[in-house]
Sequence to fold (279 residues):
Amino acid sequence: MASDALTRDFKWSRSTVMLPVVAGFLWMLPAVALLKSGAAVYAGIWSLLALKWGFDFFWYRRVNYIRIGRDGVTVNRSPMRAPERIDWEDVVDIHQDGIKEVEIFLSEGRVATASLLALEPEERGYLLTALRGAFARFRSERSLHDRMNAERLKMLRRFRARAERFRRKGRYDAAEVLLGRVIELDPEDASAYQERGMVYYCCGLYERAIAEYDRAIALRPVWAEPHFNRAVACEGAMRRGEAIESYRNFLRFAPVELGPYVRCAEDRLSSLDPDAWKD
Fold:
């Protein structure tokens, strides 16, 4: 068994490795007898089958039976089968069934097995411990990762709320710095792009505001607010056609609680496009 900080390898037992040698030797005996009797074709076939056992011997020596890693387990069952990959994410529990095998219960209801008889006797008792230890480490790391993500989300919400307060107080530089930090930590935070667009709009930077609203809309296409703000910024940038389109998109996605903004959008749309409400 080889191991390091994150990986443990369980090799095939010596008896398993030597089995192809014995089988290959036994298969060569009929080949020799057939060759002596003049049946060269059949002797060649038997020889090829014997060589196959030789290939198996080298495969068992080179390939580990089980590799336990940080993210899951890989089981190599035979030279004729592809390795079976089991992710810890899919594992429910691990049990040992007597002295023959270890059972790995998966979330989809399937049970994967690892034969203890394929290991050296001194390693059989350690396999279950190694599997359970790696599985417990994965769950612990995932729990820590979830807690860190929760703390990170709280921090980003605090940054956004502080940036909004800075914007309302006219401290646009401070708001932009905070929002830049939020976006650096989470490039897919649509709310941060939306808020930074409002900062740029308040500074009269309409084109930059439109670009920020576009990023927010790309991340959350059916979120109504950036469509409304984009329309207002397009009006400031004298982009009438895009303003009309953005107002229409806002009206398409606006929830009931945005009623005052809906009426404002309808009024602006009527002003920009008098034919907007005609059938």
About this structure: Residues 170-272 form a domain with the Serine Threonine Protein Phosphatase 5, Tetratricopeptide repeat fold (CATH 1.25.40.10). Strands lie at 2-3, 8-10, 66-68, 72-75, 84-87, 91-97, 101-106, 111-115. The CA atoms of residues 5 and 70 lie 9 Å apart.
